[in-house]
Amino acid sequence: KAGVTQTPRYLIKTRGQQVTLSCSPISGHRSVSWYQQTPGQGLQFLFEYFSETQRNKGNFPGRFSGRQFSNSRSEMNVSTLELGDSALYLCASSPWTGANTEAFFGQGTRLTVV
Amino acid sequence: AQTVTQSQPEMSVQEAETVTLSCTYDTSESDYYLFWYKQPPSRQMILVIRQEAYKQQNATENRFSVNFQKAAKSFSLKISDSQLGDAAMYFCAYCKNNAGGTSYGKLTFGQGTILTVHP
Description:
The complex is a heterodimer. By secondary structure, chain A is an all-beta fold. Chain A contains no helices and eleven strands. In chain A, strands 2, 4, 5, 6, 9, 10 and 11 form a seven-stranded mixed β-sheet that branches. Chain A has a four-stranded antiparallel β-sheet with strand order 1-3-8-7, with no helix packed on it. Chain A is globular, with a radius of gyration of 13 Å. Helix content of chain B is 0%, strand content 50%. In chain B, the strands form three sheets. In chain B, strands 2, 5, 6, 10, 11 and 12 form a six-stranded mixed β-sheet that branches. A four-stranded antiparallel β-sheet of chain B has the order 3-9-8-7, with no helix packed on it. The A-B interface holds A 31-33, 35, 42-45, 48, 50, 55-56, 88, 90, 92, 94, 96-97, 101-103, 105-108 and B 35, 37, 42-47, 50, 91, 101-112.
């Protein structure tokens, strides 16, 4: 079974630009979550999608948005990039229900804003 | 809001020895899950062990075990017979058990503990 796939693995963008990151969950998983990881703030929850609906949202400005498609693939978008948006963005998928489930993480997208 | 605190930014251990990583959390919920995740240099987050708050028995996975003290809101990880491959950043995480099903999609993480294993 393929794991969680995030693309691209690395990105360099300029301040003011926008960026779209993609996440393909494990087949059959309906929940996709996004996290931002920085040395200063650690791992912070961005949002969670389930069946194309945003279920939870973290404390991030409106420049951060996401969506989920009918095949459970998810994208997150950051508009008007700031230097502080440089981070590792991690995606995780989970089946949502059932015992002994867990969040499975992708390898992340490293975003550098210059 | 839930918070998770890992007070040890770095820990080190000799190969084959035992090390304990500390974690405390704060929540007003009674039904939740706690996790330890490992993040090696590859950045892949890997689940090490899971604890359900309603279970009194401490979880164990091979060389990894936890000491779950619900009243004290403490959740420490013990690694026995440490191996070089255990070297990584370890994160403690909390997830509320939502009614109607558990969402593992909203995890609250601690700041992490870097574990170094010396040969």
